[in-house]
Design brief:
The chain has helices at residues 45-50, 78-92, 104-115, 134-144, 152-162, 168-175, 210-218, 237-246, 262-265, 267-282, 298-304, 315-340, 363-394, 397-415, 417-425, 428-454, and strands spanning 6-13, 16-23, 30-34, 56-60, 75-77, 97-102, 120-126, 179-181, 187-189, 203-205, 224-229, 250-255. By secondary structure, the chain is α/β, with parallel strands linked by helices. The strands form 3 sheets. The protein has an 8-stranded mixed β-sheet with strand order 1-2-4-3-6-7-11-12, with helices on both faces. Strands 5-10 form a two-stranded parallel sheet. A two-stranded antiparallel sheet has the order 8-9. It is globular, with a radius of gyration of 28 Å.
């Protein structure tokens, strides 16, 4: 029988020395663990001890953290972290592994799994999603940017005030891996001190927009478990639930009695959640990710959902999209009218531009603006129809209401520009008809969504509260 060992080692990846901890037999399936901001691989100690004998567990100190090197160039971008992970994989001779990432390490794990799906057998994301609550992020920043030159026990007391779910003894042990002694006999954080300096030139994280980050999560094709701490102030429950609905092959487990640092706040429940997930993966509970298909035609959608069902049906959502398109057509018509009236009659053989309300608008510019707005509203319509289709299949009226809320919010932001343009540019009888058409379209759009929200139908309970989506 192979001896179970604990190793504390380092390996060179590119220009950096990366430190890591390893438990378990080298021949066992590998689990690679990526910690969150400001800590180290030791945040997974309690979890690794509970998984001994079954897996080879590897906890990496990511660049700038723990006992790994700091980046001399200040590159802490998402791409740099992802490149480190793959270089580390090559250095250790790992062909495929299970990837677990917490917080910052979770976002790095998502990017890695999307870029190298053939390397990741399964993915566990710990208290991280496409959105983070500002309150929780601010709390972490205040804690890590507090005093950084204290007596060891002062750090322990400060950490205990920040997270009172743990005992003083547990925090004292954790802080031994997060702090290093200084020349004056005190202690300071191990992670790159430039993170704590205002105005530093570090390249940190990713420049993805919110929409792009949501799409990144949707692009994950490997089996995924999202674990949330029930008392987390970073990952909100509604964000977690939406994430697993929109991801391809994901499930959610909420660990009781845990905040953001789930693995250490409640190690037994966290371990049980991960173990159950990995058992399902090994048993083949996940089908291959479905290949993308073209969206069905409008006629087909109407025929498919025509029979009476419990719930609001699909037509209100389709009316929302039709109303949005009508608003845009009215806007384009008004822009063309404004263009036709933008010049005075010739005086002395010359023609001079006459601004409409002081803002002349070229026809091509008006057309392009209308097309851009139409494109945005088309995306809203497609997303809402897709969500409504899924909702109808599962007979969940509450999620249909969420879709309607999203559409109303989007129309409030995007659709507002169209009637405003119509009012400014319109003249005469045909212009009044245009305004009337735009108002009717907006009324139709908002009315359909509000009808959906006022539906009194009760949802049918789900058979499996944490259904696997495949």
């Amino acid at each position: 029988m192979e001896t179970i060992t604990y190793l504390d080692r380092e390996v060179r990846v590119g220009d950096l020395k990366l430190h890591y901890q390893e438990w378990g037999p080298a021949s066992a399936p590998a689990i690679l663990m990526l910690h969150g901001f400001g800590v180290s691989g030791h945040m997974f100690d309690e979890f690794a001890e509970r998984m001994l004998g079954r897996y080879r567990l590897i906890a990496l100190d990511q660049r700038g953290h723990g006992d790994s090197d700091w980046s001399e160039t200040g590159d802490y971008s998402r791409d740099a972290f992802v490149d480190d992970v793959d270089g580390f994989r090559v250095a250790l001779g790992l062909d495929q592994f299970i990837l677990i990432g917490h917080s910052m390490g979770g976002l790095n794990s998502v990017s890695y799994a999307v870029k190298y799906p053939q390397r990741v057998r399964a993915l566990v994301l710990v208290d991280v999603g496409p959105e983070a609550a500002k309150e929780g992020v601010d709390n972490i920043v205040r804690f890590t940017r507090g005093p950084d030159d204290l007596e060891f026990e002062e750090f322990v007391e400060m950490a205990h005030r920040f997270n009172q779910r743990r005992t003083i003894e547990n925090i004292r042990e954790r802080m031994r891996h997060r702090l290093r002694p200084t020349e004056n006999g005190k202690w300071t954080w191990k992670f790159d001190k430039r993170f704590r300096e205002a105005g530093s030139s570090l390249r940190i994280g990713s420049e993805l927009t919110s929409d792009q980050t949501w799409q990144l999560f949707r692009d994950i094709t490997v089996p995924t478990l999202l674990v949330r701490g029930s008392e987390s102030d970073v990952l909100k429950q509604d964000v977690a639930e939406r994430a697993i609905r929109e991801m391809q092959r994901a499930s959610l487990v909420v660990v009781p009695g845990a905040g953001h640092s789930v693995p250490g706040d409640n190690p037994p429940e966290f371990t049980a959640a991960v173990t159950g997930f990995l058992d399902d993966v090994e048993a083949g509970q996940f089908a291959a990710a479905p290949a993308p298909t073209a969206p069905p035609s409008l006629d087909k959608l109407v025929r498919t959902h025509a029979p009476a069902r419990r719930g609001p049906g699909l037509m209100p959502v389709l009316l929302i999209g039709a109303g949005a398109a009508a608003v845009l057509l009215a806007s384009l018509f008004a822009s063309q009218r404004r263009r036709s009236r933008s010049r005075r009659r010739p005086e002395n053989g010359r023609s001079s531009p006459e601004p409409v309300h002081g803002h002349p608008l070229d026809l091509s510019t008006a057309q392009q603006r209308a097309l851009d707005l139409l494109g945005e509203l088309a995306v809203v319509g497609r997303e809402s129809v897709e969500r409504a289709r899924s909702v109808i299949h599962e007979t969940e009226i509450e999620r249909a209401r969420e879709a309607a809320h999203d559409v109303l919010a989007s129309l409030g932001e995007r659709g507002r520009a169209a009637p405003k343009a119509v009012r400014r540019a319109s003249r005469g009888r045909r212009a009044k008809q245009t305004r009337s058409g735009a108002g009717t379209a907006l009324h139709l759009t908002a009315g359909a969504a509000r009808w959906l929200l006022k539906s009194g139908t009760k949802p049918t309970p789900r058979r499996r509260p944490l259904a696997w989506r495949s």
